[in-house]
Structure formats: structure tokens, C-alpha cells
Amino acid sequence: MGSMIGAAVVRKEDPALLTGRGRFVDDIHLPGTLHMAYARSHVAHARIVAIDTSEAAALPGVLGVWTHDDLPGLPPSRSLPGIERPCLATGKVHFVGEPVAVVVATDPYLAADAAAAVVVEYEQLPVMASLAAATAEDATPILDGLPSNLVLEQQLSADDAESELAAAPHRLAIHLRNQRCAAVPMEPTVCIADWQSGSLTLYATTQTPHHQRNELAQMLGLAQQEVRVIAPDVGGGFGAKASFYPEYLLTAELSRRLRRPVKYVETRSENMTAMVHGRGQEQDIEVGFDDEGHLLALRVRITQDCGGWPDPGGVGLPTLTAFMSGGCYKIPKIAPSFRSIATNTTPVAAYRGAGRPEASFLIERVIDHVAAELGIDPLEVRRRNFIQPGEMPYPTQFEGIVYDEANFPGALESLLRHVDVDGLRKDQADRRQDPSAPLLGIGFSTFVEMGGFGPTPLFEQFGYVGGWESANVRLNVDGSAVVKVGTSPHGQGHQTTFAQIVADQLQIPFEHITLLHGDTATVQEGIGTMGSRGAPVGGSAVLKAAAKVRAKALRIAAHMLEADENDLELVDGRFGVKGAPDQGVTMGEVALRAFKPHLLPEGFDLGLDETAFHEPSNLSYPSGAHCCVVEIDRDTGRVDVLRYVAVDDCGVVLNPLLAKGQIHGGVAQGIAQALYEEVSFGEDGQPGSGSLVDYTLPSAADLPHYETDHQVTPTSFNPLGAKGLGESGATAAPQAVVNAVVDALAHLGVRDVEMPCTPQKVWRILQAATQNGS
Known about the structure:
Blueprint: H1 14-18, E1 34-40, E2 46-52, H2 54-58, E3 62-67, E4 92-93, E5 99-105, H3 108-116, E6 119-124, H4 131-134, E7 150-155, H5 162-167, E8 170-182, E9 190-196, E10 199-204, H6 209-220, E11 227-230, H7 246-258, E12 262-265, H8 268-274, E13 277-289, E14 295-307, H9 312-315, H10 317-323, E15 333-342, H11 356-374, H12 378-385, E16 394-395, E17 402-403, H13 408-416, H14 421-433, E18 439-448, H15 456-459, E19 469-475, E20 481-485, H16 494-506, E21 513-516, H17 534-561, E22 568-571, E23 574-577, E24 580-586, H18 587-593, E25 608-614, E26 623-632, E27 639-649, H19 656-675, E28 706-710, H20 728-745, H21 759-771
Parallel strand pairs: 1-12, 10-11, 14-15, 20-21, 27-28
Antiparallel strand pairs: 1-5, 2-4, 2-6, 3-5, 7-15, 8-13, 9-10, 9-12, 13-14, 16-17, 18-26, 19-20, 19-25, 22-23, 23-24, 26-27
Helix pairs in contact: 10-11, 11-12, 11-20, 16-17, 17-18, 19-20
């Protein structure tokens, strides 16, 4: 059999999912299950004067109604010291949608009716639903115990680069905004808690079952083996399902009290205000550069919106933005700082890319601003600033951030082989002369991001046990294999790619390999799936475990053939003696022999069952070059993406089909952020996008056909050579689209368009330009 690494194998996961046979949390029906619903705050900032639960408690089918005071001793969720979030509001509410009380009833509809009958009396407090309001001099502190709404502030460089900026021949100040986005997974937050005989089982739609187990065990005072968390099929997560939610703790406690399973199913409208949002970052940038467009100094001041209860992952997002703010360019001096701010809005945390798309958007918009200021082709400015392949691995100015092997200029040149820039420029010029023709814009994005999260010292900062990953490979007596992994996929295709790795190592049929994941009782330890760590960290652990099985199988085969191990080779599932093709044993025969002690060397451990851990020594750094071509309707301001071309470098490609799917999904989310999506709040903190009627998601008809290609530069920092790919599209696309929109309007003197580039926003720019005679 040929190598399975790099084979375009169809996903194992899909038949069940496409035929409605997936098993999601809400598909699990335990006997006697009760249903929990929240009474949520309808105001953004207020003191709780009184909560009347009597009417709700008296309704038929209701087993109980609880407020924070009814659940003494329940610990808060972890965050920065002193601002931990209680599972139910106590004293006051911080954002619209914050849970104030819970109801448990015999069916979900009765529970919802009872939750609506809970009466809360509020005393209004000043609302600060924007960064500007929360940082104003007279702003009221949202979090008790803090003197202001500043949650965390850090200067990540020795100075502010003022001397380097002052010495630069040119200097530009730029303000950029990454608007809030909602994750909007197909499946909202769902969980079922079943407390029996002092132990807890929680079924949850999560990306990190082991992490949630550890959190719950600590919160409930249980040993870890007394808490089992199971993540079955998970309908999307995009980072938002890595956070800890109050319902995990509340369903557990109420199941313990009621001695029956308790299920919670979030509605879509609840999801829009209760699940953590992403992005929500503003950046004040100053860049110094010379006449040729060489970047000399970069000062970045980041302001991160944390929402009403700072999530431990959300507070640290600007750190990742700061680390990656130089992009794929050689900038002598970078001086980043950030401040994280509480606002009366939904908490903000990880969302596909988590801090890196914000950095990539920042530096790629800076490059285009510099090009426009100097009148130089933006492609040429990129070429003049690239870190070169011979300089890799490249230590950045930030300790521990070392780019692995890459070819940034090569990715751009590969992209340009797919794009006729001269032809597009001619078309653009012709259209500008024809008032009836839509405007044309061409945007580029050459990017690098961080994936393969660990290493452990970095990951510990986000509350995880470590940054390693675990895998176990067991060969059965018939030569089939069971693989257990600590990653917990939610669309990444681990069942397929990890089976490919094992099939390649052990030379057994791909179809005979089963993957188990997402169950803390089945897989002893794991960290989870986020930060593009599936292939580089999880896949490397699988590779190591399979290699250990192979090595032991080789020893058994040598004993069976009475040959030296060095004289054997494994080809097409058969150990054979080199140069003597008639002498050999199959992997299946070896697997059976592994359980026959009387036919093995004395003292030989039975079975072929091996566990391995992979601790990354470095992050991985996927990169690439993307091009977006847009068309703008002059009458309506509507932006349509005509072409989207992506060249990605994720190191070794394990499965081209899955790689293409990851690119498609990420680019779709990136285009959506650039053109459509925005979570909004009124000055009173009321959500302006509380449902999918108000929050614009693109359909297939709104998105282009994607043209994809790969440049393969293996990383030397893991045994697979893989860098990860899950977040690259979302990291690369927003600025490719915005650069294209600005390029289409550049002849009108336009230098910037704030995301999302909605028809109304673009139309107003066109109208203003027309009135000014441009």
C-alpha cells in the first residue's frame, strides 16, 4: 500500500452526519430527564432589588426555581482574581442575557413558561455598552472591587518605540477596528448532567472535555475520576465552545439535588447573547517607514472589549495579537501594549483564530496604507519587507515566539501564478471610465499565524493543565486498531486524518481503524481541540503511539521469523525478511501472537497497546498568500466577491480534501466578517443582533467559488511536519477583502473602510465622493 499521508481520503465522519444519524447532546435521552431554563436579565446594568419566584414555582410541572442565594457554596467560574463570575447573578447584572434564576420542570416548554414568570425588580445603573463609554472619565466601574473598567493592562516591549518612529522618514497613524462577531455554531450550548451515587456524568457540546472535567471536579470538590465529561458529535464550536459556561455547573448541582438527570438546551436567541463573542478589538497604530516602503518601527496600542464578565481566555487575546503584530515582515522595532476593558455586553473570548486574525488584519492594512502613502504597488511593499526563507526559523522580538520554516515570498509568487494582476488592473481602469460599470478592486493578504498550541508554559496561562496531547493505539487480535485521542473534534475530521496516520505507520487497512474521543472515562488525559493543534500536536501523539506499537510488533515478528529485527521490513501489512520475500508474517498474525504468552519471549508484555504524549517544543506557524477580487455596485454599494484565490502553507498536508474544507470554512468566516457580520448593542446595552433576523450570515449564494493551492514547507518542530490549518482562512481573509474594497474606491481618495463593509456604508462613501466631485 502507498503512503496514506497526503491521500485525499473521503471523511469517515460524513455518512452518519449526512443521513441524520449523528449523536449530538440533545439526541441523548436519559430516563427521568428534567429540563432547565434560565430567567435572564433584560437590562444591561442594574442592581437586583428583589426576585419573586413564587408564581413560577407554582406552575404545573415545575420542580423548583433557584436564584444565587438559593444555591449557597456554588463557586464562581475562574477568571482574573477578584472578578470571578458567579453562575447566577448576585447583587447586580452586567449584561443583557445574564442568567438571574433557573427553573427545572418536567418538559422544556413548561420550564420556559416558568422562567418567563420569574419577576425581577431592578434598580438601573449607568450602562457602558461600548469601549468609548466604558473608558470615559466619568464611567462607573462595572465590576465590583475595581476602581475603573480597566481589567488588565500590559506593555509588551521595553519602550514605546517613540525614538524610532520620530527618526523614520515617514510616519502614519492608523485606527483600526475588529468588530464583534458571534460564533453562531449550528448547535448552540447543550448539556445534560446525571449525578448518581456521588459521581457526575456531564454530556456537553464542548471542544475541551478534559478541561471541563477538571474545572467541574475542582468546583464540586470531587476527585477527577468521579466526574465524567462526554462530548459526542459537536455541531461546530469555532473557539466559543472552549469556554466554561454556568450551565455546566448548574445542571450538575440541580441533578444532585433532584436525583434525576437535568438537561439544558440553549435557544438560538439565547445563544446570540449568552455564548461568548469574538474579536471586539480596537487598535491605534503608528508606523514609521522610509521612502522605499521599508517598515522601520511599529507601535500598537490594543484595546480589547471583554464584556460584562471577563473570560480567562478573552482577557489574554491581545497578547496573541501583540505577538503576531509584525506578520511575515522584518520590522526592526515593534512596541505593542494592550488594555482589556469591561463593558455591559456579552463576554468576549476565543473565536476562530483568537487574537491572530486581529494581528494579521492590523499589519496587512498597515502595508496597504504605507503603499498608498508612497504611491508604491502594495505587492512591492510586501516583497521589500518579507522575512526571507534563509532566515527561518526566525526568532521574533518576543520571547518564545520563533517562526518555524516558511517561504513567505514563495507563497506570494505562487499566488500570482494564479492571478493576472496586469489584466485585472486594466479591467479596473476601464470600469472606472464607464459610469455604468461596477467598480473593481484587488486585495492581497500575505499572512502568518500561530497554530499547534502548546507549548505547556504558554498554554498554562489560559488555564489548561498543559499544551501536550495524548494518544493510545491498540491493535486487536484480528489486526484491526482502536485509537483513543485527547483532542475532541467538532468538524475537523480527526476520525479520518488520525486513521490515515495509523494506517500509514502500521500498514493496516484504513477501514479497520476506529477512533474514540471526547469521553474522559475512555481517554485518560487530553487538552482538547483549539488553536489549530489537531494535526501538529494531536496527530504527532498518534504518530508516536503508532510507532511504539509498530516497534513492538517488529520485535514479535522477528521472534516468529527467527530473524534479526534489522533484517525485517514492513510492506503492505506484512513483515518480511529483506531479500527473502517468501519469509514473512502479516500484521494480523503478529497481533494474534501478541496474546499468546507461551509463544513469546519470556517476560514479554502481552498485547500491542501503547500510549504516547506529544509536548510541542514550539508553536507552529501556518502562512500563505490570498487574493480577493471584488466588484462594487455604484448605485447600491453592494460588494460581491468575484474571485478568491488562496495559497496556504500548512506544512505537510495530511489529507488534501480535508485541508480544502478547512480553507473553505475559514475563508467563508473571514469574508463574512469583512462584509456582513457584526454584533451590535445600543447605548442602553440592548442587543441589536439578538437573532439571525438581525445578524447577517452569508448563504452559499453570497460566497464565491474558492480557488485553492498549497505550498508545502514542513516544520521541523514536530514529527509529522504539519503546522495546522483550521484558522488560516479566517486569519487571512478579512484583510484580503477589505484591501480589495479600499482598492476599488482608492481613486476617490478612500484609504479605509471599516468592517463590515456593508452596502449602506460603501454607498455613503460613494455618495460623499460624488458630492465632493471625485
